[in-house]
Structures are given as structure tokens and as C-alpha cells.
Amino acid sequence: MQQAQNYLARDLEKSQAVMKYGRGAKVFDQDGGSYTDYCLSHGALIAGHAHRNVILAIKRSVNRGISFDTVTKAEIDLARHIVNSVPSIERVCFMENAVQAIIESVKTARAFTSREKVIVIEGYLQNDTLETLYEKTDIIRLTFNDINSFAKAVAENKNGIACVVAPPIKIVKGMTLPQSDYLKKLREITNQYGIVLIFDETITGFRTSRDCVQGDFNVIPDMTCLGGIIGGGFPLGAFGGKRGIMDVSSCQRSMRQLASSFGNRVIMRAGLAQLKLLGKDFYSTLNTRCENFVNQINAFFRKEGMAVYIASYKSMFSIHFTRDDDHSCCRDQNEADNQKYGDLHRYLLDNNISGPPSGRGVYFISGMHSQKDLNQLTEVLMEYFQQAETG
Fold this sequence. Notes:
Blueprint: H1 2-7, E1 19-23, E2 26-29, E3 34-37, H2 52-62, H3 73-85, E4 91-95, H4 98-113, E5 117-121, H5 126-131, E6 139-142, H6 147-157, E7 161-166, E8 170-171, E9 175-176, H7 182-192, E10 196-201, H8 212-217, E11 223-226, E12 237-241, H9 243-246, H10 250-253, H11 265-275, H12 280-304, E13 309-313, E14 316-320, H13 335-350, E15 353-354, E16 363-364, H14 371-390
Parallel strand pairs: 3-15, 5-6, 5-7, 7-10, 10-11
Antiparallel strand pairs: 1-2, 2-3, 4-12, 8-9, 11-12, 13-14, 14-16
Helix pairs in contact: 2-11, 3-11, 6-7, 12-14
């Protein structure tokens, strides 16, 4: 860690160790320590660390060249898989990373509608990203699940709004699920005024099911942004949508992206190898295992009368410092919560469990997490909160 502090220009305060390698659900540090990993590269490693199918695809691809300035068959194969899986995507454009995918999706929507304003609904990547690119007067920020404020903003700016960038599930400052009919009303209002609806599924895409969260809720946007899982752990983003919209995207007008992720067949093959692992049985086992864990630990918190609640969706969850019956799906983690979480995070590390360093983060489960791993997490959480209650 001392060498890291000497040479790396990054915040290392919350780093528990210098990691050496990962395998399955575990990560191993330079000192020989091991941790059960619930970060999984922001959820991208849904099949676990160094899955043999992904590694084999990487090795085979590296031996045939890494990056090209043209389209490769690997890119076509990954695009076909995405188009055949995600309901909203008829054509797809790959980008260097998820942030770039969001940026380019907004540019495409503005070109398609000949409008300037963008409604950004708090969620994950897009909040800070878009505000650094556009005039503040062109960005309208709204709260997730507040459909009344959304309807009002659209009514006041209806002829100037190009698009709405929204997460189908909020994954920032604690996980929040959409309230009843919230996503459907977003879809109805944007359809009414000819506004392009963009779902930010850079984290949730292929995490919950093959057709993503939009398929789970049967609300289909005009465009979708993807990341994480589609790269098999490598940095890769993508945005796609209806053919008519994608026809005006920068991918149709420029070849500048081809020198990076576009032509990198290694990334494309790694991503496709991971996606091919994700069938119905995989998702059923993964999601059920996580849901059972959440139900068990929340039942314990309720029984003990503790002000703790785990919000979850499929194979993702976050820890909230509030009682179950007081839990509001719109309540963000605050600074007091973050201080409490800091103590919990250190306790988890002491027990060889690696979770997100911030209370605003989300835990992810992979296909390599066993029931034994989740039993250990349950026991450690119970021990910690029992000790906290007794002071």
C-alpha cells in the first residue's frame, strides 16, 4: 500500500489492500489475504472473476491480434447478441466506455429531434457526466420516482426537450426501485410529446435478465445505454435503439471510435463469452439465491427491531440505516448513514468480505457466489448489528 501511495494519484483511503488476483467469488491481496467480493467491478463480473470461458475467449482472441481499424466479426457477433436480447435495440454502437455511451446517446437524440434540452433523472452515471458537457440551462435535473415534477417540467418545456435520460432502477445513494407505474408514465408522457426516452442500463443491463430491466417491467425506451457486463470486465460501453434514431448517430458519420473499443476484438470476445453464460437457469439460480439472503436478513432486522433495511432487486442490494416500516424508496443515504456504513465496511473487511467502500454503493452477487458465501455474509451482518445495538 505504501508503494501505491507513493506512485498513484488516486484516493486510497478506503482501499483495504493491494489486490493480486481474483478467482470466482474471491479476490486475493499481495499479503496472501482473501476476500469474498461483492463489488465485482461495479457488477460487471456477473460470472465471477476469471471465468474459464471468458479467459479462454481472451486467450484465443489475443493470439489472432488485438485491435483493428475496421469492423471485426467479433464486433458483429456481440452486436447480434445484444440486438437479439434487448427489446429496445434494433441497432447498436459500441463506445470506449459506459460514460461515452451516455454522452453519444444524448448527442444522437438531440440530432434526431433538433431540440436542445435534456431531462436527467438522478440515477447513476449520467448526473455529473452531462452537466460537464452542456449549458446548465439545457439540463433539467429531476428526482427519481417524482412523476408530478416530471410532468410539470415537460409541460413547461415540451417543445424544447430532446430526450430524457433515466435509470429504470436508481443505483446511487442507495438502491431505489420504481414506484408503481412510474416507468410506464415516463413512457406515456415522452411518447405524447415526441421526446426520446433513454434508459441508462449501464449497470443493470444483462444483470437482472437477458432482456434487462426494461424487459422485467415491460417498459421499452427509444434508446438504451449499456456497459459493464457486455465487456466481460473490460471497459466497454454501447448505446442502441430504434433504427431511425440510430441512423443519425455519430457512428454513422465518423470512424474515430474504431481505433479503440470498436476494433478491439479481445474485448468483444470476452464480452460475448460472458453473455453466452447468462441463460434462464443462470438468472433463476442467481436471483433466487440473492432474494433468499435478503429475505432472511431483513426478517432478522425486523425481529430484533433494528433500524436497518436491505433494499434489493434480483442480484443487487444496498444497505439502508432505517427501519423496514419506515423505509422510503425515495430516501437517499445521508452523511450520518455514511459514517455508520464506514464502521460496517471495516468490520466486513476484518471478516474477509469486500463490499462497496461507500454506503451509497451497491452489492452484487455473481454466479460463483455459493450458499456458503451468503451464509457467511448473513452471520457477519447479524454479529455486527447485534454488537452495535448493545454498544
